[in-house]
Amino acid sequence: MPAAPSPDSWVRPCPPEQGGGLWVEPGGFHVDPTRAVARAVITHGHSDHARPGHAHVLATAPTLDIMRARLGESAGGNPQPLPYHQPLRINDVTVTLVPAGHVLGSAQVVLEYQGSRVVVSGDYKRRHDPTCAPFEPVTCDAFITEATFGLPVFRHPPASVEIARLLHVGQVFPERSLVVGCYALGKCQRLIAHLREAGYDKPLYLHGAHLPLCELYQRHGVDLGDLRPATVTAKEEMRGAIVLAPPSALMDKWARRLPDPLIAYASGWMRVRARARQHGVEMPLVISDHADWDELCQTLQDVAAPEVWVTHGAEEALVHWANLNGFRARPLHLVGFGDEET
Ligand SMILES: [Zn+2]
Ligand SMILES: [Zn+2]
């Protein structure tokens, strides 16, 4: 039996002018391309991964739904849903989608070619999240990891602790409305689900921008309880209410029409005080859908890949840690991936 090909001989970062993302040569497809391509495999619905205009899109059914909800007509042609754990041959490569624990439908893309296995993790976390299937480590020859919070200062507290703080503040200030800034895909629904887990069963109020994806989650069987649009509710009724809104709405007059709003913001970046101040946040909540430093290091150990390729975020520290701990690690320098949604 001939030796398996080295991972970097068949999976490569792709220059933006040729589609960007990763190019899987023997499969003839891109993973998370940043420009419109012929054939795309998409890890999840966040806008830096799920771009418009591909001629053929393969993803989990929820991810395809999310793309349709957000991109409409330009969600791409020939959508092909692939359930988790079901191998699919594309040319010479076998593709399997495995839960990434990041948002509803998020998948790691497991690629196999002539005995070589590469896992593209997309974005992921290891924490409990009632709104999506948990991350599953898959051993492989090369693991491509994000490093959004790839510095040892980033250690997220348990979400339950942050949720308890929020509910406590609500009890201390029953006259105020609590406005929680959060991104529309993933964070919003996770906050709602954690509030429900903590026993909060009152109606939750949503900015109009957050309603469609909450309804989509509910259609996919995620129970979010009683949700109401914030804008049609009488002002007095909003005293003591919890309102979820996009971060962009926190500082503008949308939030000011609520009774004495107390501004909170849920993000892994709330660890950084300057970021909280910049958004006028009284109550930073450190809740993230990305792995923190400990989760990143733990995951590298769990997947036991001799090769680690690190992308979007603080690559250097994780590359350094991995090289010290017996991995061959390097930064991947993919262009176009950011922290739009963290
Ligand atoms: Zn993401
Ligand atoms: Zn990302």
Q: Could you walk me through the main structural features you see in this protein, from its secondary elements to its overall organization?
A:
It is a single chain. This protein is of the alpha/beta class and 342 residues long. Helix content is 22%, strand content 23%. The strands form three sheets. A seven-stranded mixed β-sheet has the order 7-8-9-10-11-18-19, with helices on one face. It has a six-stranded mixed β-sheet with strand order 1-2-3-4-5-6. The model has no long low-confidence stretch (mean pLDDT 95). Bound molecules: zinc ion (2 copies). One zinc ion binds at residues 44, 46, 102, 123, 341.
Distinctive features:
globular; alpha/beta; 19 strands; 7-stranded mixed β-sheet; 22% helix; 6-stranded mixed β-sheet
Radius of gyration: 21 Å
Principal-axis shape equals globular
Chain-averaged pLDDT: 95
Based on secondary structure, the structural category is alpha/beta
Bound molecules: zinc ion
Helix content: 10-25%
**Low-pLDDT residue intervals, each spanning 5 or more residues:** none
The amount of beta strand, in percent, is 15-25%
Instruction: Give, in spatial order, the strands making up the sheet with the most strands.
Output: 7-8-9-10-11-18-19
